[in-house]
């Protein structure tokens, strides 16, 4: 599993491991790191020129406040925050006192669900912290609704390299981003898939596997399996038929 180990022991992955007698290792293939203050300044963006921030993930929150601290930028009490989910909004409490801020959030995790709240506050000047790997979805939506905004890269995704002698003996690899597939090829340039199964979550990740010349054995989400855990359980059941 090319993701960090679940924070809770109640993860459905553990239920699957116990139910079907399989072993699941959590080994991230990628990691997220912050840009340096010098790198950020090259974008010539002034955070304090803005009155609101749009957060799409906890990573965005961590690196936004981390870089602000590094650059000694004091965020004003009047700053507003717009988050894709309540969980992301609550995470802001790691850096500020939640009750003293004006914080808005969506319910579905999709940026479209947050747009009505943003449009209600269309006089704000929005700042959008982004990863070096991103789409123009947010920019296009804000442009469409004539919202004043600035996007800036504050963090990047890099390969989480395997150490010499580190075990790599798996029957199946599950990826959640194209960057994870790139990391596999970087760490193992002579990787020979053979009987190793590969599963992905998301269409772009699936395409990255195909583009890498690898065989895709499991793809999520689907109507029958809207989550990776559901897809994995279906795959295991199918594999075990007749055994």
Topology, element by element:
Elements: H1 12-20, E1 30-34, H2 37-41, E2 52-55, H3 58-70, E3 80-83, H4 86-91, E4 102-105, H5 111-120, E5 126-131, H6 137-144, E6 149-159, E7 172-175, H7 178-187, E8 197-201, H8 203-211, E9 218-220, H9 228-240
Parallel strand pairs: 2-3, 2-5, 3-4, 5-6, 7-8, 8-9
Antiparallel strand pairs: 1-6
Helix pairs in contact: 1-9, 7-8
Structure explained in plain terms:
Helix 8 links the parallel strand 8 (197-201) and strand 9 (218-220). This protein has nine helices and nine strands. The protein has a six-stranded mixed sheet with strand order 1-6-5-2-3-4, sandwiched between helices. A three-stranded parallel sheet has the order 7-8-9, sandwiched between helices. The longest helix is centred in the N-terminal third of the chain and has 13 residues, at 58-70. Helix 7 (178-187) runs parallel beside helix 8 (203-211). The mean pLDDT is 93. By secondary structure, the chain is α/β, with parallel strands linked by helices. It folds into two domains: 12-29 and 163-240, 3-Layer(aba) Sandwich (Rossmann fold), CATH 3.40.50.10090; 33-157, Rossmann fold. 34% of the residues lie in helices and 19% in strands. The chain has helices at 12-20, 37-41, 58-70, 86-91, 111-120, 137-144, 178-187, 203-211, 228-240; strands spanning 30-34, 52-55, 80-83, 102-105, 126-131, 149-159, 172-175, 197-201, 218-220.
